[in-house]
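Methods: example folding runs. The two proteins below were folded one after another, and each record is reproduced exactly as written to the output file, sequence line first and structure-token line second.
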Amino acid sequence: MSSAHARIAVVGAGLGGLALARVMQFHGRRVTVFECEPSASTRAQGGSLDIHAGTGQSALRAAGLLDRFRALSRPEGQEWRVVDPVTGAVLPVPGPSHDDDSPEIDRGQLRGLFLESLAEGTVRWGCTVTGATPLGDSCWRLLLDDGTTEDADLVVGADGAWSRIRPALSDATPGYAGVTFIETGFDDGDTRHPALARMVGNGTLLAAADGKALLAQRNSDGHIRVYAAFRGPHDRQMTAEVGPGDTAAVRARLLKMFDGWDENLLGLLRHNDGGFVDRPVFVLPAPHAWEHVPGITLLGDAAHLMPPVGLGANLAMLDGADLAHALITESSIDDAVRAYESLMLPRSAKAAQDCAEALDNLIPATDS
């Protein structure tokens, strides 16, 4: 069966699933996206993303959204400022690990671009998929938590780290990568915290030593997102030790952890707005692959969950665009999925290795 009249079900309305849906619709194909969240505004979508020319921008071009992305993006956000943790002195910045054309955009803005481009009703909000079961003849049945079902000629698991679709293809589960990020931030930083805003600059500030790091990332509308990162066992997450709602206790523990660092850097922890959010880093085993199964596949974090060092969102969008291209050009759905997997799996294996090395470089276990 070709994709021209097929029932294509995408599970997950993240960037990868939406890129797939948009490129399919851009070429006149039908697709339905099932998303467990009740609406697009249910929760914040995270920080700023650098969108690379060879991956994320390629997907946006295929989706017909590159010009709109350019209008919203922040080229100045590419700036990296590395400082000495103790003195606060600005250090030389290593050369870029990817192409130089990688402007920043808030994840929520980028997701909004895709959502606004889709036909009304494409995303079925509040539909929690709990699994998929084969029906024969390459067809699959989605199981929803309200007891209903949906049948499809192709199921695409784009449902992230804890995918409900992945078990139909793989026994792999995410494991802790040995690093935890504690997130906080500042609203209206340029007005309310001008000295800190000047220290951060236009893009990302990094200070790292002895298995710890402080990062501050410029977002849109004057928001500055801050991460305190450290190496340690999963059962010693900062908020788990002191209670997730005890902001003062978490702050005290973090200040103790970073004791001796430059006072201006510590201001990122002393003067933040709101509380702290615990974000341990989980990854899938690498390389992660599976034997081809007709009528079902994965993309994005469901296929290749990696450390959050700048590749995940780009690869998810490229996965979606590549799968859509294969579905449009190949003579059958099965040929399309095979072509996509033969491209995506080797690419993601290499990227997973690169991301693991980047995390080690970002938060080194010891000073070099």
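Second run, written to the same file directly after the first:
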Amino acid sequence: MFRYTKLSLLREVGLWLLALVFLLPFYFLITIALKPDDEVFTTSPLAPPSTAYFGNFATVLTAQGNSNVVLGLINSLIITAGSIFGLVLLGSLTGYVIARSTRRWSRGVYYLFLIAIVLPTQLGVVPLYIGARTIGLTGSAWGMIILYTGMLLPLSIFLYAGFFRGLGIEYEEAATIDGASRTQIFFRIVLPLMSPATGTVAILAGLIVWNDFFTSLIFLGGSSNQTLPVAMYYYIGSLVSEWNKIFAIVIVSMIPILAFYLFAQKRFIQGFAGGLKG
């Protein structure tokens, strides 16, 4: 039976203090973003705004041209969602084949994917760009989805293969006896059991794709399909020291990915714990 002791109290106080330390940057972010221009440099960063001023968000969201934040937000959502779908579909299928195969080649292929995870993707940017430009994928949302899917597929396969190896084959054998095909077994039985792995892949890939700046700048720079980090780059470059507007655009960029993490955090935690319970 759990007993609440002085040590428990000290642990709680320590955790609350640690939480306050981690939340302090968010406090600065929100308070400065809600301050009008005349309060940014005349008041302390710790001081809340005299009145909540949402004009900074309106200014950020109505920017046009290369600094169009709304268009960048939409493009980032499309590219991130498409990349996650491709990684879940292809990664789960490939990981399942590797995990269930008893042939020697499967282990060799698995190690090749591990090597691909270790190698930095920046090493292949030049040939990737030449190839993408040759087939007309630069400046295209579809091209970025294909590119991100290929870049992050080794990580997806690695995570799925590890989970599949820890999953028994009893359900699959029972479904085979009942007359189910391999496709039905995978999509109706195996993949639903992999929801912790799917949540882990979705959040990790989503964070990488959503926050990626370098690849988007190279392959989408100057096009109408540029992502939110690129739009932020152009917009912040024109602001110099208008920190209230800079912090406002940072908050806008954080909201979608935070909402997605809160939605999928249960599966994400289960994935890291190696659990298979839904």
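Comment on the second run: The chain has 13 helices and no strands.
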